[in-house]
Structure formats: C-alpha cells, structure tokens
Amino acid sequence: MAPLTKFLELRQRIESLGVIVGPEGKLLKRLGDGNDEFVGKLEDSDLIFGNHGLYVIEDGVLAKVVLHICDIDIYWISRRPNAQAALNGKVFSDAHLIEVLHKYHFTNCQKLQEMTRSGRQYRYHKAQRLDGTFYYYFLDSENLVSTNKNQRLYVCSFCLNSWKEQTGQDDCQQRNFPSSNIFANDLFPSISDNGYVLDCDAVPNIYAGDWEKISQRAKEKAGWKCKDCLKDFSQPKMKPYLDCHHKDHRKYNNSVMNLEVLCVIHHAERNGHAHMKNTPRYKEYKRIADASFPI
Length: 295
Ligand SMILES: [Zn+2]
Ligand SMILES: [Zn+2]
Ligand SMILES: [Zn+2]
Prior knowledge:
Largest sheet: 4 strands, mixed
Bound molecules: zinc ion
Strand content: 15-25%
Order of helices and strands: HEEEEEEEEHHHEHEEEEHHHEEHH
Number of strands: 15
Number of helices: 10
C-alpha cells in the first residue's frame, strides 16, 4: 500500500522537474517548442496510469477519491425554478454556472446521503486530480455542447464543515479550498469507491443517435401498453403519451433490461422525474385519462 504522502511527494517532485506523466507512466519533459522528450518510465504496482494522469491505488481500488456531478443540462437549468433562485436572476458564463450550482464532496455528507436516498447517486463521478479542476460536460438535453477538462468547482459546504471541525482550520473558504488538502490529510478516509466511474472516462448522458428507432421498437415489443397501468396506446392519437424510460437514468444505456415502456403519468412517477408533471404533454394526457376513467 502506497502512503498518500509518497504519492503527493512523487508527483510534486516530478512536476518540479518540468516533467509530466503521460500515458502508461511515460515521463515526458516539456521542451517548450511543442515537443516532449521521453525521459523515462514509472513502474509501481500502487500507481496506475490513466489516459489523463496518474492515479494511486490502495487495496485494488482508487485511493481517496472525491465525488462530483460531471454534467449539466443548460436547457433544463434555464427552466428549473430552484436553479433560477440559486442564480438569483443573474446571467453567468457556463463555467461560473457550475461553480454556483455544483460542488465536489470528500465525505459522505448529508447532501450525498440525500442524493443516495432519492436514487440520484448515479449522477456522481469520481476524481483524483489535485489541482481542484474536474471534467465537465455541457449538454442541451439532446446533444453534447462542449467539454471542459478544467472546470473549477467549490467544495461542498457540509464537507467543509467536517473539515473545519476535525482540523480546527476555521478560516477555509469554499471557493479556494484546494482538493489537494484532502489527498494529503489522513483524518479523512476516502468516500467508498463504490463502482463510480472517473470523470474523465464518463460517457455524456445523452441519447444515442438512433434513439427514436430504439424507443419505437421497445414500444412495439411492449404491445404499446404502459407497464404500470396496462392501458393501450396503440391508437395514433394516443402514441405521443407513451414513453420509453431508462431505469438506470443513463440515456445511452439502451440494453433491453434497462428500458421500460410507460405512459407519461407513470413515467413522471419514476425517481427524479417529477418535473415532467409540469409539461403540457403530461397535463393533456392527465385530462384525457381523467375523462375516460373518472375516479
Ligand atoms: Zn459534501
Ligand atoms: Zn401508465
Ligand atoms: Zn425516464
């Protein structure tokens, strides 16, 4: 097991030589003319060399990770009342928007617990970079608009309070708390690395290009019936009220096991889908359903 201090020291030493760690542990000296000179290779069973840097392993898992959400739907944010309230009517750049809305976590704080309880932990990815920047994907509900490989995030206020309590360092600020603090401090065990994917390896949560066909096929296979209420949506005027839902919330995971054919009412009952109840389509179908099946 590699002590984390060794990892930090190693990294700082390497960086102070003007050398970067490239893929497969290759050490590359930056020559300043755009070229890199190969100066050696790191070999250590406690380190892994990802496409995006150096990671330290303990007992077979990534040691000390922080968790953060790594995508934001710009379109959705612009309509979401609580996001609007957080933004307080101000217009921010995309990067600043994330700083206001999303934080990174290093303890299993009340925010992470609440997200787990409400079935939304799928939104988190792990990171092990020391410079306080993270991978971020900007989406507009259907498409990947851009990727920011160096998105700055503030630390979560609940996590920061634990830090202050345990270290006595009262003067830390959310906006400039370096994530390297976490990696260098042994008071905080890592958040359990429960199968989270590294942010740099995240697949942007958008629909596959052939999603229309896939969802059409799933509905045909289900006989145009909602799985929950078993009502029939095969009439052309009813088809727009039948949806195809991704059980694991990953819009790109179109395995048969992950798809569920649901009417718009039952779709809106699924975890994290309550916002659907405000859509015209939901209200329209609710009127039709109430009229044909009076309670
Ligand atoms: Zn937190
Ligand atoms: Zn239904
Ligand atoms: Zn859904």
